[in-house]
Design brief:
There is one protein chain. The chain is mostly helical. It has 19 helices and 2 strands. A two-stranded antiparallel ribbon has the order 1-2. The longest helix has 31 residues. The relative contact order is 0.11.
Length: 452
Amino acid sequence: MPHIFEHGILRRMSFTQSLMFGYSIVIMVGALLLCLPISTTERVRTPLNHCVFTTTSALSGTGLTLHDTYSYWSLFGQIVILIIIQIGGIGFMSIGLFALSFMGKKIGLKQRATMRESIGSVSSGGVVKMTRFILKGTALFESLGTAALCFWFVPRLGWAKGIYFSLFHSISAFCTAGLDLMGYFEPGSSLITANDSVILNIPIIILLVVGGIGFFTWSDIVTHKHHIKKYSAQTKIILVVTVLFYFFGMLDMALLEWHNDATMGDLGYGGKIIASSMLVTSGRDAGFASVTVANLRQTSIMLLICFMFVGGSPGSTACGIKVTTFAVMMMTISTVFRKKKSVEFFGRRVDDTTVRNASCITTLYLVLVAVSAMIITGVDGLELTPVVFELVSAISSTGLSMGITTSLSDLSIFIVIMIMFFGRVGGITFIVSLHNNYASNKSQLPEEKIML
């Protein structure tokens, strides 16, 4: 795949345009394969827009579905979806350029720069080494996750199907995709049918956390181990925000959902803790539903929207505006109130470009969700809350839903597809891709104060 950069139109593309083009190709090839009758259990042709929706959801790690993954798609279709999930989770450029490195081929500056965009690195230095770390770490955790999940699936499904189910859910969880095959037990049930199972839920929760924290964070932890003072400011931010989100999420579950008969009424204390943990973890990274989301209290739904909007960490398999963007925005507010000149974290100053980018990303995501929500509610006549929930879930590649996905019109499906694609490539990448080069500022205009 990487040698295509040397020929034709791709040679004239910028790094980010090449990345978006590559993701588009993966989506369309996957969609065309899913259109084939062999991809469905009933051997029927699936509408192209439904196939594009499914492949975009798989590539972006969203998990929103128009059809139950197990009961509607055949084994062939499921494998196509699984491959796309894996490509989306670790980046298609990581796979292609690692293959070149493995064969001893020279990797040029453009390939390195495109790979940097693909994995979310801030520089091209050491990017090949980081890619090897990503692929080795992915193989390790997905293998361990498959082995752990076998203890739940194999006794119920036998060795062949049990191992396949374990592999599928391990990859889906690590790539924070949220797509599942639990429709074998009950169509569209996700993890609700086994939401009190320790053997099933704990490995998935661990895979979600590992995938959502990010490869660069794990690289920092592996390098410095228990010497926390040597961690980068970014790693410290990610770890602190992750812990705080989990704490407040569990607190909300304890105060509001613990006694909600519509969600956790039939579960014991242990089951409620497991279901709550899955909901809080999946609410930031993936779409594994441990309870019926539509039955949650309004406060819990709002909290989940906030969690989904923020998403995971930079360089991870998760999307959203990212926890670092959220932290920069919160510290910017604090800086204004404290009348300080710069945003600071753990004894380090954040540069102005990063602050502007964080503001741009947050505003852009909010505007896209707001405009899309107005269009969908106007076209489909749906209530605002489930539509906003669906759109935030799509743009953050979370995949939780209040049950309106299958009720969307063709126009609304197209909007959600674009939102999912935008969430996959990221706000800054999408903006930069529209231009090959930044405009050069040779002079500055006169300054004028504007009231806020």
